[in-house]
Task: structure prediction
Amino acid sequence: MSEPKILGQFQLEHRTIQVSGDDGNAGTVWLRRVHPDPPMALGCVVELDSSTPRLRLYRAEWPDDLRDRAKEETLAIWRAARG
Result:
């Protein structure tokens, strides 16, 4: 099994979030906080290829506006990576 490819990153308040995925899971990407330390897996966005992508966080509870921004940023990175 290969490591997911880093597709890009974005800023969300004080966090730098990295988006990664692979060709085998075209409708899912994973989110990882890379700043501030320590780096931490945050969750994933699934069903990116549908009209209702879903953000699934492992531990963090974010208000709706942050969840929406994270989903929008992730979608933009995913679409740009697909060409």
Observations:
- The chain has one helix and five strands.
- The mean pLDDT is 89.
